[in-house]
Amino acid sequence: MAQIRHALNTTRADDFAAWYQDVISSAEMAEESGVRGCMVIRPWGYGIWERMQRLLDDRIKATGHSNAYFPIFIPLSNFEREAEHVEGFAKEMAVVTHHRLIAGKDGGLVPDPEAKLEEPLVVRPTSETIIGDAMARWVQSWRDLPLKLNQWANVVRWEMRTRMFLRTSEFLWQEGHTAHADEAEAKDHTLTMLEVYRAFADEDLALAVIPGEKPENERFPGAVETWSIEAMMQDGKALQAGTSHYLGTNFAEASGIKYQNKDGGESLCHTTSWGVSTRMVGGVIMTHGDDDGLRLPPKIAPQQVVILPMLRDKPDDEALIDYCEALRATLASQHVLGEPLRVLLDTRPGKAAAKRWDYVRKGAPIIIEVGGRDMENGVVSLLRRDRLWNEENGKPAFQTPTREIAGQTVPDILADMQSSLLTEAQERREANITRGVTDFAEVEKFFSAARYPGWVEVQWSKPTGAELEEVVERLKALKLTMRNVPIGAAPVDGECIFTGKPATERVLLAKAY
Amino acid sequence: MAQIRHALNTTRADDFAAWYQDVISSAEMAEESGVRGCMVIRPWGYGIWERMQRLLDDRIKATGHSNAYFPIFIPLSNFEREAEHVEGFAKEMAVVTHHRLIAGKDGGLVPDPEAKLEEPLVVRPTSETIIGDAMARWVQSWRDLPLKLNQWANVVRWEMRTRMFLRTSEFLWQEGHTAHADEAEAKDHTLTMLEVYRAFADEDLALAVIPGEKPENERFPGAVETWSIEAMMQDGKALQAGTSHYLGTNFAEASGIKYQNKDGGESLCHTTSWGVSTRMVGGVIMTHGDDDGLRLPPKIAPQQVVILPMLRDKPDDEALIDYCEALRATLASQHVLGEPLRVLLDTRPGKAAAKRWDYVRKGAPIIIEVGGRDMENGVVSLLRRDRLWNEENGKPAFQTPTREIAGQTVPDILADMQSSLLTEAQERREANITRGVTDFAEVEKFFSAARYPGWVEVQWSKPTGAELEEVVERLKALKLTMRNVPIGAAPVDGECIFTGKPATERVLLAKAY
Questions:
Q1: ipTM over 0.95
Q2: Domain region containing A449
């Protein structure tokens, strides 16, 4: 086995956090903006988000939701109506207090004291309360239900310690909000959307997530039930990749979302909300990235195939570009994974080999290089991003199909890559979940010994109140949290690892982002 | 000719402003949010905006731009670097001063004095300065140019008098920002994007706009040249529907956007910016709406065809739904105007006739009703939104093709509607532009006499400084503004209507939104 010289300066094994930043900057996905806690999402990173948006939006619409748009500013008084909700968000809200600037004493600009708002406005951290107001206006009768809305928007939660994509003061997301006639339908819808997220995460992003219910202490502020999908990162930590909340009648009471029921009486609606954000991009990086940079499931790759002619600033460049253009046109006319294939012919100035490594770091699924000799032989040099290296000679594992065969087989390669990235993530996840731990001392040992320990599944009695707080504190001492109670886990059999009482369900423990 | 009973309570002739609000509320497009100056865009209104986004985004990408995302917050100091720019926006900026709320003395929430920002942040009114910062980091060499970016985002300009879609404190838009090596290329690109806007406005929205250059006094703060597309509303007023700015090196100097040129020296970039917003939705309403509500060019209709079975809560409903579903499936499998046909089969509770009028007011291009007798006869009842009435009997002008023929001809009807709405707008515009007015007294008479006078094209000498100010004041007294200097206007021939000097170009005068 030959030594491979990887494309990044940092490796996952050396320093996972530094590697993460390296992937983001060398793939030109995002960067610090200079504005506290806010990032700039660069075209390649935003292109991935656009692909996610398109795929998830289709799934959300297919389940009967319509998109709408609500104000970015929320009056303080709206928040005050739901006590737990405001308690949960008050510490991290950006507050608008003035609507004009004037020249200050030193010539710089200052907020105009004459233009102070009577009631400060909060930049939305989430929109339950403002959308609740609209629902109260729109829902009159049972005929108006269910009301199924979704919004794509920016939100702001002031964060002191930020990390690109994973935790930023401003982030992009979708937030779904629905109102239903009764508890059963609303709870059912909460799970329908959790399943939409699971399918999106697995089938589109190849994340191999575990759906389940959050324990009480991890609920969304104001929710009755919170469900999540949890993804395992390559360092063994968990990433909460999406949440779906059953809100009971809490927000309906706060905003007055009532309807005339079939008996002519008045009932409160039961509402749900659910969201997925740009954080998911961080999950894709930490699930699929390797020591050469990003790898992307083809469904979310801004470009699935990049063709690089090896131009030499000579007259025969033109013939080479024509040769590549024919392949580009063939590929662009094909469909893969249900959509037109996305292919880029990159003829910008610069050496093909340097560009190759740029696209490797960006995670373009297939890179095709074409030099003069390739053209003479009627072939192309094709590199699969998920099988980059020939381990025997330590060189990039180029295949050299004829141009015609490349034109035919590229869609199959992309489809194969989409499913093999999911299989890889599933296998890694299963290999790194330890089940059947019954003694808390073992948990302590497990998480203190291994560097990337993965997750542990334990049985518990679902304690509440002070008993639950004690559990949370014990886990906190190990920097652990309960991730969720997986749907479809094996039946319980034994005692609660925390309380010694008969166990009622299984719960996943992990370090988390 | 029979009396027609229109679907709205207000008519354009009675009160154009009230009619506009009536269209918006009865089509359920948008409403006041309760948050000062901010509107809620409801699903039907947002669906139109989503269609616009998709079509314009395709055009922007086809001209080589990539989408990216920049922070919503801009530090004050960024603005201070470009004097004209800050002067233009300081009076209408929402200012964030705190990042946390705490309980105040009366128990309500107040901004936490301990969490006051060192430097206040402005909610972006436009992003030249923050994107300029990024460009300065990304552009190093001539090889990095041109840099062509676009952003879809919300922006805030604090407005005292708001009108839905046309003027709101928060609005949605796209803002394109590009950096170029020299003046010629940047100016050329400014016009390329103006042409993209013109094509989008005419071919997709059927607005029949006039592209041209804004006079100096109407330029974007900090721009060297501002170009616009101007659309004529049915009340004869002008709506600026999109602008494209050549910014010279003003923002490049402010942000330090420099590059190493081919000679090895350092040069400043020349930048452009251009934007189109949700204001365009208002333009669609005031161009195409009629006394029955909204009419929509099929390309931007969220649903192009709505099928309404006349359900009677009886067992034979099922056969009727099957009959309609077959038509829906036939239509959904077809393409029209370059995209899959959008068709909705609406089986929600409620009377078909009441729903018909809801969709008329919403501007669904084709409404198909199907009753039991239609089914027996193998036909459907088809209503074209742009030819709603049989003027002879005052009734809706239903056609009754067989279901098979309807399945075949609907795409043709939609394509015809798309082009006939444009023709209608073009003809109205041309009929309402008065050319060849050479005496300012005539202009005065014209705009004071007619209720919906349209526009007047005059010749002028393009004065500057005090002379221009005087022109602006004279027009202001008549509530008029100069809209733009149309591209491709007839050659000048005579004197400036304002100064008496030899005219150099033609300029459009109008009342405007």
A1: yes
A2: 433-510
